[in-house]
Structures are given as structure tokens and as C-alpha cells.
Prior knowledge:
The protein is built from 24 helices and 27 strands.
Amino acid sequence: MDIKILVAEMTLEEKAAMCAGSDFWHTKGVERLGVPSVMVTDGPCGLRKQAGESDHLGLNASVTAVSYPTGSCIASSFDRELIQRSGEILGEECQAEDVAVLLGPAVNIKRSPLCGRNFEYFSEDPYAAGEMAAAYIKGVQSKQVGTSLKHFAANSQEHRRMTSDSVVDERTLRELYLPAFEKAVKEAKPWTVMCSYNKLNGTYASENHRLLTEILREDWGYDGMVVSDWGAVNDRVKGVAAGMDLEMPGPGKENATKITEAVLSGTLSEEDLNKAVERVLKVVAQYIENRQPNTAFQYERDHEMARQMAAESMVLLKNEAGILPLSKEKKVAFLGEFAKHPRFQGGGSSHVTCYKITGAVEAAKDLNIVYAPGYSIESQEPQEELLAEAVKAAKEADCAVLFIGITDEMESEGFDRKNLKIPFGQQRLIEEVVKVQKNTIAVIHCGAPVEMPWLNDVKAVLYAYLGGEAVGSAVVDLLYGEKNPSGKLAETFPLRLEDNPSYLYYFGEGDLTEYREGIFVGYRYYDKKDMEVLFPFGYGLSYTEFAYSSLRLDRDSLKDTDSLHVSVKVENIGNRAGKEIVQLYVQDNESSVIRPVKELKGFEKVELAPGEEKEVSFTLDKRSFAYYNTEISDWDVETGDFTIMIGKSSRDIALSAVVRVESTRQYKRVFTINSTFGDIMADPKGQEIVSKMLEKMNLDDIGGEAISKDAMMAMMGYMPLRGALMMGGDKIRPEMIEGLLDQLNA
Length: 746
Ligand code: BGC
């Protein structure tokens, strides 16, 4: 397909029409020019290909596919290779179903655990989210199928999602809400990026030139297509000018007329329209020209992949006295309806029609278990009969496993959660069971954190997240030690919702949502406030133990243009094979700007046999040390010492070392009569020049008995230069200040 020639041959009307889909899921073709139409489909955790009636909310049926663990679950695997492999499988499934673009991954930052769609998102940390998104995209696209990196940008809530205005300051945007997109765009080049529903700082994402052209294309070099979220278009003409290429769903007839009229009247340049059409055609060509029509959907293989992914991702949060893994000899009561009918995927556009669903009861059918539902998924309230039956089963068993969590009504795309509680009926089940059975284990099915006021009453907690259609097998594999848990949390679990940094402003006022907590999202906030949390970011247990040693940096100091190589040894000191997620955090020891205590800048997952030791290494670059400096609109490193921390979690730092980083940025500070003595003295040259003046002022005389010399010096730190005239009396003349400024700024 020669795209330039095609565009030249298209009429204005054909080009305008091309800027929207033909229906819910297809791009438009142009028959007379032989341009075919291709299909796009959700995404991200399995295919939702609707062959019949269409919708974007998961209402109508879709073809049978495999449901994989959702974003928050696979993020806990911290396993780039696994995520990439799952992408490859999804790509093959798309080829088998003739789908050109899979609508994912979704990388929005978890600002609050309330966001109804957190189950689809990876993390509260932008570095982690970006790494995972890049792996996913590389996997899918290696099969010649496109992805859609979504939802761009600052779309961290479902509340009023189509009209809300995310008001985010520049530094927060650059450090928290954009980097996952930036990383994925630069490293994995998604065929498409999906703009979000919301406004960003007053302008809808679908017509936001700054976002879609200046940042995405000019700053990050993106050359792919931007598609609207389904129904995100407000003003289509502005959208084309802003760089939003394809409106979905189609057919967008009125908007095509508006685009045509705008070009004819000169309010929209034909060049902008051509660019949009070229980008749409590029996606069509990329798919059609590399089509692999003989690919088959391998349901059994893919179901096994879903099982493996779930087992690699679930997080063991508590394991008192090594109650897990369970012995197969023990009589175990599986309690809670989720044991039989697990909750394994979220509601909305990511909802998959499953090939087969394996619950824990089925997966454990050959083991010594009894099952009692304990509560009904249909109701939040306790069901006394079910409760009594479960309590009896718990009493008669050697131990009880409670399968609990929240329901589809409580957590879904399209609205936010109201609180972090599990249903009251399930709460009662826990309370009654632990009274009769001291060996109780909780398995939790939920896409995001819940509060656990009952944590001390149970011996173990396995967080299953939304584990995909093979969830039951994965849970049983982990409970009985067929597999060793190796997931760690990619988000903080707060003790209570009220502790979350966005709590005071999350639902905003009307459409206005101000991201007032700024860069202090997730562990960045809890660490800075030194707050207790339920489970920290990066936390997760294993059935074995790991020891860390020999942290080495390849140099003690570097320029910010150099790289730093870090290595550390990790040993499995237990007697089971296991996997450890080694985390690297960077702290800026002293900084003139407000920064988090530490930030994740590396992670590696390593598999170790008992007694085995491996070296894990990381490479850090300027971005690992930098903050976004809004004065220069760029990433900037302040010269000074940084601590490199190697952690088992964000709150369990095993080893650390200090390195000095020198900024290579040449910038000249300009001092004025309003520069404070403190700021001037912080500059070596400034100190030399100004101390002479201070001597002349003889501060001892000024303070007299009323104020000590030290207090006087502290006060002077905040005094602007012009204040010297007032303080110095006759000794200081305006010409002296001018001369001093000349010297300072020379
Ligand atoms: C969702 C997108 C999804 C699209 C198509 C929208 O409601 O926000 O994530 O890809 O529908 O189903």
C-alpha cells in the first residue's frame, strides 16, 4: 500500500470519512481504491471480539476466548518476560480471530484504590507501569497485531469519566501520569494510542493539541495513530487539528461533514487531515501486509498460560507459622461461594466470554476438601443458614480456607468504589469461622486493595486479585505448594481508605478533579509521611527466604550524562526453589526541590534453586536521578549525593550505597535586589562576595542584646538584598548593592 499515493487519490469527502470507524469495531475501507477495513477489539486481558450486536460496556456477547489475569494481577508478577509472552499469545489469538488492533494495555496510575477500573491498570508507580506496558506491547506486536496504549492521559477515576477535568500541575503530570505512556511509546512503539474521555487541564484529551501533538509526537517522537476512547470525541474538527486521527465508534457522518466544511472554509488545514488519514492507513497496511491467516486459537495452551500467569502473580501477604503450604493429608474446608464460582475478571469493556472457568473446588477435586458456600454472591448480607453450614464444616476440618472478595456490583468500569470494604455477609463469615477454627486462611478475589480489620484473626492471606479463568487452579497450586508464591504488590495497601493521599479531593467538585496531592501518590506519600500501611508497595512473601549481599556500584561518582551499573547478589537460603523480585530505589539525599523519599528505578525477578546464588544487575541513567524542572521544561539532576537502595519491598531495604551525581547542565543564576542572602550564600561565588557586605553591616551591633548572632544570621537568610539598605544604615549605599549585583551576575 503506498499511503502517500492513496491519500493523494482520495477525495476530500473520503478523507474526512476515514477519520471515523465504519461501525463499533472497524475502520472504514475505500472500495474504489482497494483499501480494506480492519477490526479493533478489547483488550487488554483477553479478546472481546463482538461478532453480533456491539457495545463498549461488555453488555453483548463476544466470541469465546481466554480470560487472563487482569492488569493489577499480572503487574504483581513484576515479570517482563511473562508479560511479553502473554502478549505474544494475545497477538496470535488476534491473528486467529482476524483482529488488527488489541485495545490495551491500560496504564493509568492508581491515584486512589477507589478507581473502579484499577483492576485493569498496572500500578501506582509510573516506572513499573511503563516497563510492564512496554513488555505487553512488544509481545502483541511481535505477531503483527497492533496495540492501543490507553487511556491517554490522567484518567485515574471512573467517576464522571466522560466529562471530568483532571487538573494536574506540570511536574506531577511529567513525573507521575505521563511516564508510563512515555516509556511504552519510546521503547515499544504501539501502533495506536487511545486518548481518554476526560479533560486535562480544561481541554478534552480528544482535542488536546499539547497532549496529542506537542508531548506525544514532538517530545516523544510518536509516529503512530491516535484513536479516541469510545465516545470521547467532543469537537471533531478541533480533534483533527490536535492530532486525534480516528474517532470511535463510527460512522461519524456528521463529523465527516464538519471536517469537510472546515477544510473548505480554511479553519482546518488539509495537511492536518492528510496526516490523520495517513496514520489510519498505516495501521491498516501494517496489519494487512503482515497478515498470518493460518494462525489457530489454541484454547488449551492459552488456558494453561492463564493458569501460569495467575500463579506467578498472586501475592502471599501473610503466612503465620508457615501454615502454608497445606499438606495434602489435611482435611480442608473451602468456604465461600467464590471457591466454586470465583470472581476472576472485571466488568465492562474488558469482559471476556471464557473458554472454561476453573474454580478452586474443581481444581481441588482430588484432594481432601469439603465445600460450603458460606454466603451468596447475590447478596451483601449474611445468609444465616449458609453461615451455620460453613461454620460446621470449618469446625470439622483441620483448617479452613475462606474465599472472599468483592463483587461485580462493587468494582467495575464505569463507576468507582464507595469504600474498601468486603461485603458484610463475608465479614460475618470470617468472624464466625475464626471462632471455631484457628487455622484459617483467606484467599481474596478483588482487582484492588481491601481493608482487612480481621487480618490478625487469620493465619494466612493469599491475594488472588482477578486471576483470569484458570484462577482456581492457580490458587490450589499455591495453597498446596505445587508452586511457590512469587508475586509482590505493585500498589500500597493502606490501613484505611482515609489514609490515601487523594482521599480529601478524589471525587472532586462536579467535573473538577484537582490532583492536589501532586507527586505524592502511593508509596511516595506514605513514605514521606512515615505512615504505617497495611502492606507496602513491593511486598510479598514466598515459601523460601532470600539473602542479599555484595551490593556494588561501578563508580562512586558520575556525570548525569553517564550510566551507573549496580549489581547485587541474591541467594535462596531456604529449601524450596523460588523467585525473588529485587527492587532498586533511588533517593536524592539533599535537594532544593520537594522530592519523594525514594522512587523505584529498577526491578528484576530471579529464579533460584535452594542454596543457589545469582548476581542481579541494573543500569541507571539520568532519568533515574532526575526530577522534572518546570523552569527549564526538562528533566534535571541536582548535583549531590544519591542513595541506591536494594529492597525486598519499598519498606524492607536490604542494602544501600551512596553515589555522587554531577549535573552537566550549565545554567546561570541571575540575582536581583529581591534575591535573599540565603540563596546568594548557597552559591559559592555568591558567598564570597556577600560575606564582605555582611561583615560591613556588623550584625552584632544590629542585634544588640535582643537577638543572638546565630538568630540574626538565620533571619538574614530570608532577607532580600534590598533589605541591606534598611539594616546597614549609612554603611550600605544603593550604589554598593548595584556593584555587588554586577559582580554576582558577571
Ligand atoms: C473503554 C475503553 C475500551 C472502549 C471500547 C471504553 O468504554 O474506556 O477502554 O477500549 O470502551 O470498548
